[in-house]
Write a structure and sequence with these properties.
This protein is mostly helical. Helix content is 83%, strand content 0%. The chain is rod-shaped.
């Protein structure tokens, strides 16, 4: 009998990667916003 793929694990990895990418994007946006605020003052 062949070992069946662990789809749950794959899904979890994909979701983690997605979340990490989203967090990275949000962090960059936040930093840009702070720079703009600092430039205004």
């Amino acid at each position: 009998m062949a070992k069946k793929p662990n789809y749950g694990f794959e899904k979890r990895q994909k979701e983690l990667a997605k979340k990490a990418k989203k967090d990275e994007k949000n962090k960059r946006k936040q930093e840009e916003k702070e720079k703009e605020d600092a430039a205004e003052h």
